[in-house]
Every structure is written in C-alpha cells, then in structure tokens.
Write a structure and sequence with these properties.
The protein is mainly α and 70 residues long. It is 57% helix and 0% strand. It has helices at 11-26, 38-46, 50-58, 63-68.
C-alpha cells in the first residue's frame, strides 16, 4: 500500500497538478476516471488525501485563480 503524502507541495507536484487539471478540464482521462470530481482525480493520481488537494487549491487565493493560471 502506498503511503499518502502529507508534506509540503514540491515544485514537481505543483507542475504535475497543473498538468492533471489541464487533462481533467480537457476531458483527456483514462476510462476509470469518469465520475470523479477534480479533487478526487488529483488525489488519486498524486496518492494523497483529497483534503490535501482542497487545501492546495484554496491556498492559491481560490480555485478559479489556480485553474486560470494552469
């Protein structure tokens, strides 16, 4: 079982997060991702708690600002 991340976001994770958001918004996902929210999808791909994703998105002033800069 993979250990879930609870540490600070690394630059690589930030970059990967932006790539995941782009793919999610463009609808370029694997079949088993259908029905997932953006938060659930990112948490699954980064092997972290969904709350960690929520905190990261809210820490970027707001999620729409983060998504607009992705």
């Amino acid at each position: 079982m993979l250990k879930r991340a609870h540490r600070r976001w690394t630059p690589a994770e930030d970059y990967f997060l932006r790539q995941l958001v782009d793919c999610f918004l463009a609808g370029i996902l694997e079949e088993d991702a259908s029905g997932l929210t953006l938060r659930q999808y990112i948490a699954r791909e980064l092997c972290c708690d969904p709350m960690r994703v929520s905190k990261r998105l809210s820490g970027s002033r707001n999620a729409m600002h983060f998504l607009a800069t992705a």
